[in-house]
């Protein structure tokens, strides 16, 4: 993937080097805690560190040069991680601006915050161990690029397009926020009669974000600037499979509990990414009106 040919974004905020957290936990809602705890166990992290805040002990390793404020290296140029994130975000901005324009809507571009160790957000505080996430209260994606190392070393997923898929998935949550889908799902979760039912709405939301990431991938594939290869696509599909709830639960606790799924199974995540990737049409990403057993 030739990401260096993609358009840059001016909406990357660099907070790396800020250290750990003074305490408190990320305000992610009750149903998100389980999958985060499972991921924590899989990574060998104490779940209370994530859910209760504090420094996870996992700091992003420096790139090739010392970081200074604003993502600038000592040589005065932005490092490769910053450039990669900026261009992937710029690409998602371009794609979704065009898609929204087709429906006579205006797309509000999200900001992406790079951090290391921990970060303060409008949704609360979080450590890097939570992984990439989107906060709808400030319309920002939060990312410690050290997660990409984790993907490669512990999840069996890696490669530039796979990393870009992760960013595009979080941007997919922003798209849901823009369209009012996130609020719709939240109301259904509050009215749910059981935790399993509430979890099912979370799965629908996550699979739609996977599909939206696929839509972005389709548009990028059609651009000569990105020069996607079959290997790139395989890497993204491998990543989607590696972060399925069933795969993470099996690795973390030795058994699978479908009622506790909050993101979808490996096969579901692959299928919905593929649905968006093959069609390039966000209208094919309606996970809310499909019978749950057919997702």
Summarize the entry for a quick read.
The protein has 295 residues and is an alpha/beta fold. The chain is built from ten helices and six strands. It has one domain (3-294).
Seen as an oligomer or otherwise, the chain set is single chain
Written as H for each helix and E for each strand, in order along the chain, the element string is EHHHEEEEEHHHHHHH
Low-confidence stretches: 19-77
Strand content: 5-15%
Transmembrane segments: 20-43
Keywords: Membrane, Transmembrane, Transmembrane helix
Membrane topology: Single-pass membrane protein
Biased composition (Low complexity): 57-76
Please give a structural write-up.
- InterPro entries: Uncharacterised_pept_Zn_put.
- Residues 1-21, 54-77 are annotated as: Disordered.
- It comes from Deinococcus gobiensis (strain DSM 21396 / JCM 16679 / CGMCC 1.7299 / I-0).
- It is a single chain.
- The two termini are 30 Å apart.
- α5 crosses α7 and α8 packs antiparallel against α10.
- The chain has helices at residues 32-43, 47-51, 80-102, 146-154, 160-179, 181-190, 195-221, 230-242, 245-253, 266-279, and strands at 12-14, 111-114, 118-121, 124-127, 133-135, 140-143.
- β5 and β6 form a beta hairpin.
- The strands form two sheets. The protein has a four-stranded mixed beta sheet, with helices on one face. The chain has a two-stranded antiparallel sheet with strand order 3-4.
- The chain is globular and about 50 Å long.
- By secondary structure, it is an alpha/beta fold.
